[in-house]
Amino acid sequence: MRSTKPRRWGERLIEGAIKSTGIATIVFVLLIFVFLLKDSLPLFGHAKQTASLLGTRWLPTSEPEQFGLIPLLLGSLYVTLGAMVISVPLGVACAIFIAELAPQWLRELLKPLVELLAAVPSVVFGALGVLLLGPWFAKTLHLPVGQFAALGSLLLAFMAIPTIVSVSEDALHAVPRALRAGSLALGATHWQSITRVVLPTARSGLIAAGLLGLGRAIGETMTVLMVTGNAAVIPQGLKGFILPVRTMTATIAAEMGETAHNSTHYFALFFIGLLLFLITLVVNVVAEVVVHRMGREAK
Amino acid sequence: MTRPHLVHPRHVQNMMYIVLSLMAAVVVLPVLGLLAYMMIKGLAGLNPDLFLKGSQALLPAMVGTLYLVLLTAAIAAPIGIAAAVYLSEYAHRGILVRLIRLAIINLAGVPSVVHGLFGLALFVMMLKFGRCLLSGAATMALLVLPLIISASEEALRQVPQRLRDGSLALGATRWQTIRRVVLPNALPGIMTGLILSISRAAGETAPILFTAAFLSLTNPYPESLFDEILALPYQLFVMTSEMPSVPAETKWATAFVLVVLVLGLNIGAILWRTHLRRAKRW
């Protein structure tokens, strides 16, 4: 056993290197947080600027500059809420269809198709919105503009659906066969078994699916930037859906390129980034906790 | 005691089946229809001049995107695969593993434009790489890292335990077992994950907005890591949203090329994966 010693040494070294890459993932998340924080903190140096964050006007280039975040927060809320209203029912229905109804061949066709849907780049959805859907909606529904909040919601919905379908489907599959069989044996129809046994059992998984879809929708950038018109106004009531809005993500994407390094505007955009980071963090952690609980319930 | 039903449960069931089928169709068919429309429009607009001539030529943008995704994969693959090896082969249940998993989930959930901000702050500004190929690829690498880790981990876990046991029983060390037995068997699965990540990187725009992409360059083909690049998705974005003078056919054709590239890679990876799953029943 001549080579035992150096080999053990090498093993340790390699093991350490591999472990460090695992730890690196934690470091990366922390680094993102630290850098976002570092470049948004100077914003809070002056009381006046800090107060203006709560204002209703986002006018970064006017004199005096105003960085009211309310219109952007509401813009994101409108677009995301609209997307969820469309995507959650459709996504869950599609998952039920795939998991419970579709014959084998259709399932094997639908699953990759939905996966492919997730692969379509967001600029392509944006281009479809700008070149085709926007003008078409404006013409047929006699809207004042071809770029509006609901168009963003519609396209975002189709980007969130693949996530919702795949997570919901996993949740439906995790429901033990015995439960389903018991319900059918008691004389319930298949549909009754789905609504009264399968769906309630899979509840946490379905909630997680919605949350993950929500996380995807809040963070989407390019599509929203291209189709929602980018007017930093406060949306009013239901009418707000057919008028232009501006989301948090779109604001960063549109303005960061033209902003002077270390200007107040620069810090304000980083602060929006920090908010987005924290919002998606909370949404994802909650979804993870819910999924984890589901795993334990299934046992 | 059964509750009297207004409508017979079987009729309710039939009706709901129809509704569900329709909803499933609504998920898939409109987007397929739109993509088909884009294909037809794009195919009609395609011509050789589009690739080589003018400031919106596609070839330089395709080359820029190619460089970007290759460098992204070169940065992300070693870290991602090693992290997957740690999670699947070395790690024990515990607080560290839970933290790493949480970090991966969050990394996957960070909005792409926030990745862009981070890349701007760290690579472009602090490390002074400037707006260039390297900054863009490093930013993009962080974005695809979770994808590579989960795909690789799944591939590693599918290698049966008895292969490891056999290798260890023959006197091989843990690392020798991983390198000679586990990794080679998991390699095809890892590669499909890598292809999916590359296709993701090829289509993303927000992370390179402030870290790498330019619209027109005096020298369209980058010669070093510190050169700016053109990129296909960025070109499509600027063209459709800021250049009304560019004819619609050119925009459709650009979208067509991007979709074919990204979905082509994806379909390839999905087919390969299906083939693997059929071929390898341990």
Span between termini of chain A:
47 Å
CATH superfamily of the largest domain in chain A: MetI-like
**Average of per-residue pLDDT values of chain A:** 89
Low-confidence stretches of chain B: none
CATH superfamily (homologous) name of chain B: MetI-like
Major protein interface: A-B, 87 and 88 residues
Shape of chain A: globular
Beta-strand content bin of chain B: under 5%
Structural class of chain B: mainly alpha
Largest sheet of chain A: 2 strands, antiparallel
User: Total strand count of chain A, please?
Assistant: 2
* CATH topology category name of chain B: MetI-like fold
Q: What's the alpha carbon Rg of chain B, rounded to whole Å? A: 24 Å
Along the chain, the helix and strand elements of chain A come as HHEEHHHHHHHHHH
- The percent range for helix content of chain A is over 70%
Our Rg estimate of chain A from Cα atoms comes to 24 Å
Mean pLDDT of chain B: 89
Approximate shape of chain B: globular
Low-confidence stretches of chain A: none
The total tally of domains of chain A equals 2
Notes on the structure:
- The complex is a heterodimer of chains A (299) and B (282).
- A two-stranded antiparallel sheet of chain A has the order 1-2.
- Chain A has 299 residues and is mainly α.
- Chain A has helices at 4-40, 47-52, 70-101, 104-119, 122-140, 149-173, 177-185, 190-201, 203-219, 222-227, 248-255, 264-298; strands spanning 58-59, 66-67.
- Chain A is globular.
- Chain A has two domains: 4-45; 48-298, MetI-like (MetI-like fold, Orthogonal Bundle).
- In chain A, 74% of the residues lie in helices and 1% in strands.
- In chain B, helix 4 (95-109) crosses helix 6, helix 6 (133-157) crosses helix 8 and helix 10 (232-242) packs antiparallel against helix 11 (248-279).
- Chain B has 282 residues and is an all-alpha fold.
- At the A-B interface, helix 1, helix 3, helix 4, helix 5 and helix 6 of A face helix 1, helix 3, helix 4, helix 5 and helix 6 of B.
